[in-house]
Specification:
Layout: H1 6-14, E1 17-24, E2 27-34, E3 36-38, E4 43-47, H2 53-60, E5 63-69, E6 79-89, H3 96-105, E7 116-128, E8 136-140
Antiparallel strand pairs: 1-2, 1-5, 3-4, 4-7, 5-6, 6-7, 7-8
Length: 147
């Protein structure tokens, strides 16, 4: 897997709310979710009830997109991530470390009945106007090819 630019990593780790968009059966849904970033597996971990529209759509079409943004009115300080990936349910026994990442960031969630989901990232576009107006940094998931 190609490494994530340290500026993108720092930005994603600094924030905790993402906006998620899903699409299925000709309808779009958007929601906001708390997230934790599983850097090792390049996944954003969220919790959401299986009955929500966005989860029902993701069960039909797991391809999702979303944003993580810094709220500012100062154009020179604008920063934000646009991401694309696949939204999948995190099984109870699957990747214990990923579960720990979420509960470490949101310990109160341990007490709630939660269903964890991961957004397995495929693409990221990071805009950072502090580096120059409209400066973009891109990341794309690339498999390591072994012979």
């Amino acid at each position: 897997m190609n490494p994530l630019d340290k500026r993108i990593l720092k930005f994603i780790k600094k924030h905790h709310v993402l906006n998620l968009s899903t699409y299925a059966d000709g309808e779009i849904s958007t929601c906001s979710c708390f997230y934790a970033f599983d850097v090792e597996n390049m996944q954003l971990v969220i919790t959401s009830d299986i009955k929500t529209k966005h989860i029902q759509q993701a069960l039909t079409n797991p391809n999702v997109s979303g944003t993580i943004v810094l709220e500012t009115k100062i154009v020179g300080n604008i920063q934000g991530v646009q991401f694309w990936g696949k939204l999948l349910k995190l099984d109870d026994i699957q990747n214990l470390n990923t579960r720990k990442v979420y509960f470490k960031k949101f310990p109160f969630a341990v007490l709630m009945k939660t269903t964890l989901w991961v957004i397995s990232l495929t693409h990221i576009k990071f805009t950072d106007n502090r580096l120059g107006f409209g400066k973009k940094i891109f990341w794309k998931f690339m498999h390591n090819k072994s012979i």
